[in-house]
Amino acid sequence: MADQATYALELRDLRKSFGKTEIIRGANLAVRPGERVAVIGPNGAGKSTLFNLVSGRFAPTSGEVLLHGARIDGKQPFEINRMGLSRSFQITNIFPKLSVFENLRCGVLWSLGYRYAFWRFLSRLQDANDRATQLMEMIKLDKKRDTLAMNLTYAEQRALEIGITIAGGASVILLDEPTAGMSKSETTRFIFLIKEVTQGRTLLTVEHDMGVVFGLADKIAVVVYGEVIAFDTPENVRANPRVQEAYLGSVIAAQQAGGH
Ligand SMILES: Nc1ncnc2c1ncn2[C@@H]1O[C@H](COP(=O)(O)OP(=O)(O)OP(=O)(O)O)[C@@H](O)[C@H]1O
Ligand SMILES: [Mg+2]
């Protein structure tokens, strides 16, 4: 058996039911450290639910989730976050009435934890300021330092969200449709930014645009009807008949026809 800790993230026969309906039906996945994984699949397949199970928003009905070999299923989101996993949401998750800098600093302070006594907290404030400044440069918003988040463009808000997501230095990052609602050119720039800021980290990103998927991912996980039906390199996934049949064939045809 392979050493568990060789995987940054592992799902083992994961299941989740809402009421009587089983939404996640025995999902398995093993992602190595530093891999960039695009999670694709039809609407309603369970991609966001999988992320909710991994990040601790929902507890699985059965099965296991391991982060660097340690069980995290059933733990609270903040505990999982402190163990090195961070996620963004399909919906923007920033404080609209705080500035770019303040939003990032909140992200950093959150990751340092409220468990510190006030005097220790203060001694860390300078670190938090430095880290927030560094993040602001990484996401290329240093010229908008004092702009309120609500006054940023949509693409800038998404960049800020990525900044908040990586603020705590998490080693595993989950992004749920980070380019949703962006134009083609914004998307291209944004993917470049994501690649840059997640350098050396493990990334799982839900994405519908196949151009983005094939440009960004080392590996693709195909989720259909609550199962991971394929997990492989883009070339192999594209050539996989099961994937063609279940999902990719129709999506590629639609995108080539100018749809979606
Ligand atoms: N909290 C919940 N309670 C009940 N059903 C839910 C809940 N969350 C998700 N579902 C159901 O689970 C299924 C999978 O939803 P999910 O949001 O995970 O799909 P998805 O793959 O992310 O889809 P999309 O591509 O549209 O974002 C859907 O049928 C949805 O209605
Ligand atoms: Mg979703």
UniProtKB/TrEMBL annotation:
CDD domains: ABC_Mj1267_LivG_branched. The keyword Nucleotide-binding applies. InterPro entries: AAA+_ATPase, ABC_AA/LPS_Transport, ABC_transporter-like_ATP-bd, BCA_ABC_TP_C, P-loop_NTPase. GO terms for cellular component: plasma membrane. It comes from the Bacteria. GO terms for molecular function: ATP binding; ATP hydrolysis activity. Residues 9-250 form the ABC transporter domain. The keyword Electron transport does not apply. Keywords: ATP-binding, Cell membrane, Membrane, Nucleotide-binding, Transport. This is Amino acid/amide ABC transporter ATP-binding protein 1 (HAAT family). PANTHER family: ABC TRANSPORTER ATP-BINDING PROTEIN (PTHR45772:SF3), CONSERVED COMPONENT OF ABC TRANSPORTER FOR NATURAL AMINO ACIDS-RELATED (PTHR45772). It holds the Pfam family BCA_ABC_TP_C.
